[in-house]
Amino acid sequence: MTVYDISQEALEMATWRWAKPVKFYEVTDSTNDRAVEWARAGAKSGSIVVADHQTAGRGRLDRRWEAPPGTALLVSFVLERNPLLSLAAGVAAAQACGPSVRLKWPNDLLVDERKLGGILVETKADRAICGIGINLTSAPEGAAMLDQPRDAVLDRLAAAMDEWVGAPPEQILKRWRELSATLGRRVRIDVGSKSTEGLAEDLGPKGELIVDGFAFVAGSVTHL
Ligand code: BT5
Question: How remote is the CA of residue 77 from the centroid of ligand 1, in Å?
Answer without folding.
Answer: 16
